Amino acid sequence: MNMDPTSTSFPAPHGAAAAAAAPGHAAHGDPSAHAPQPSGWPLLLAFGIGLFATSFFLLASGYHVMPLFYLSALICVLIPALGWATTIARERHHQDPVYTYKILRRGFFYFLLSEGAIFGSFFAHNIYLRYAHAKTWPPVGAPYLNPHLAAIGTLLLVFSSFTYHWCHQAFLKGKKALAKNWLLATIGLGIIFLGIQGYDWGTLKAFDKFTYQHGAFGSEFYWMTGFHGLHVCVGLLFLSLVYYRMETNQIDQTYNFSLTAAEYYWHFVDIVWVFLFFVIYLL
Amino acid sequence: MSTAEAAVAPAPAPQAYSGLMDWLTTTDHKKIGLLYLMFAFVNAWAGGLFAGVVRLRLWSPNSSFISPHLYNEMLTMHATVMIFMVIMPAFVGLGNYFVPIMIGARDMAFPKLNAFGFWMMIPPALMMYASFFTVHGSARGGWWSYPPLSGPQFSPGAGESLWCLAIILMGIASIMGAVNFLVTIADMRAPGMGWMDLPLFVWSNIITAWLLLLAVPVLSGVLVMLLSDRMFGTGFFQPGLGGDPLLYQHLFWFFGHPEVYIMILPAFGIMSHVVPAFSRKRLFGYKGMVLALASIGVLGFMVWAHHMFTSGISPQAQIFFSTTSLLIGVPTGVKVYSWLASAWGGTIDFTPAMKFAFGFIALFVIGGLSGVMLAVVPFDIAVHDSYFVVAHLHFVLFGGSVMGLMAGIYYWFPKMTGRLLSEKLANWHFWLFFIGFIWVFMPMHWLGFEGMPRRVAFYRPQFEPLNRFISAGFLLLLAGGIIFTYNVVHSLRKGERTSDPDPWGVNDVQQSLEWTTATPPKPWNFDEEPEFVPAHD
Ligand code: HEM
Ligand SMILES: [Cu+2]
Predict the structure, then answer these.
(1) How much is the ipTM here?
(2) Number of domains in chain B
(3) Whether the Cβ atoms of residue B487 and residue B425 lie closer than 8 Å to each other
(4) Which of B319, B489, B513, B518 is buried deepest, with most CB atoms within 10 A?
(5) Strand-pair partners of B497
């Protein structure tokens, strides 16, 4: 089923000459990078997500459906996702690595911008209530959010951005063992951060009886830290995947987009947290 | 649409499947574009049906045709379907089809993600329709879905929650699509093609994609909060719990106004192709048009509270948002003048596409003017939430977006399918739509001035004659829709064939790469990577 990539490219001299004549567009690259192979995974993943959302909906609405249903919905998401990922990994050898890296990086960056906009809506919510309802903010009975512990978490998370950066650098220089160590350190710091947040949630719930149903204040606190925590979890999965790919030699000096993507993602999670810490715990 | 026969060397596409499986697994941007268009087409009939039911109920002041409850469902679903499941996907479809061709690329940057974006529309659409069959029926809080009306207290049941969930899921699809467009245009232009060589349809898609990328996530965020208020008892927008419904309005319209530009900018792009093409002249003022698009994109994020002049915002805010809204009329005017100047003195060829383009100019200008009137605070206070606003939004969305969309479809149909549409039927379609549109929506200005509130199933008896007049006019639009449907379905199977790369003979004034490749285009668009020779200035 795989095509011979050379038979599908635009005539090389033409493209090469034109690219050379037009600096700035040189990166147009080998067009065979875009041999769109048919694939059933996108459709299956979309329907899997639809099923998953429906089952989440039923669960949250208190309908009693067989647990098997939720499990199968999850499987309907996971199998296409894995299938898709393996297809990409298989196809990449037919593509120009520099060019592919470039478009993936840009795409991922734009995606993170939109993620930032989602967080932005929560920040806007918090700041609006804080200033428009200044007389009643924080509301009576709201617990004191202790910044000391969260500050330690913040420091660790910020530090983990550095450790990941060092991991990336080491890997690019070919020092794989060192890279792996830095990566493990990053994952460790991320887990400690999550632990600290979990402890914070636990004490707030146990001692202050503070939950997400505690009015808008509680809703914001739990949703913002929770949504961020979800991103940390995804980030940790991402990092573990990178570790796995290092371990199994699936990435090297040429094909390492997952390394960069994880770096962007991890820095993003980190920056968002710094804002969150400032807005929620300090302001 | 048999692209298989066109698949000859040297650019054979890997066609592993055929028939239905081919459509289900395709990653070809053109097929995905067609899928989007078909999706929009089917939903347009549903959305139109809902509008018909609304108009039937409004036949008399206190009709017993359907309950007020069902009326609210119909009104909500009409707007939701038309906005999120017709106009947006239809333009994404045309963009999908033509943007890669116009920049000389073989496909989108991420073909599988592109397919995913389309298929991601289906489950939420099913959810939306399925919500009719839940205990309390579908959502009925309007497409704006303001709490507290849309909150747990006043909208119990699954309908409203499913609405939120469906819109969040469609948002994912939109964001993926926007990323894909932006990367494609930034990194895959043909050698020699600079930013200021891009055809305006491509530019309009760039600005639209930026609006989608930055506005849609805010809608997702705000609907996550609303859903959480409904399902988990949080208090984001519940006054009793320290939340603020006004804040919902701010966040919603921060998305909502860019959203209306998401629905009109692609039509602007189409206009900038169709008008010069059938005036046999070059477009007037290319650079100004790009600048106008970009400034509309930026200003579009700074006008949102003009939807909230009567919601209780400070006078300073009113002045600020009124000023920015009036300002946005300037680049909009620039665009209209450019189309007029492009047509001026040209040899005008009244093809159906051109008729729709002129229809667009006539109707959109009226809608723009009523928009400028609404941007003036005292005027808005008088007519807010009246039928005047309904008139405004339909002049820009039907008179603008839909007429522009139709111009695009008549213009590119032969290119996409290799078949010609019947011109006679197309003319019938145009005149039915144009006259029907004015018949239906022009009197709504009067109703608004007279004080008939929008969004309500009842009205005062003195409005009955005009309402009957309007409801009768709906039949013209219906007839237009039927003729259009017949024309498309019939031509797809029996229409006259064409394989002329440039069936309208417009490439000399157009400089848009779709007219240089086969009709219909081969799976990978071009046999050889097109070289682009800039001609603007
Ligand atoms: C010249 C630029 C425009 C200005 C100054 C403008 C101004 C306004 C204002 C002030 C309102 C709020 C009226 C009220 O609720 O009291 C409004 C409503 C609306 N406008 Fe515009 N508008 C413009 C162009 C457009 C365009 C191009 C579109 C879409 C293609 C559009 C779509 C809408 C819609 C859908 C609503 C109703 C929203 C709702 O309440 O459901 N407008 N416009
Ligand atoms: Cu607006």
Answers:
(1) 0.92
(2) 1
(3) yes
(4) B513
(5) B419
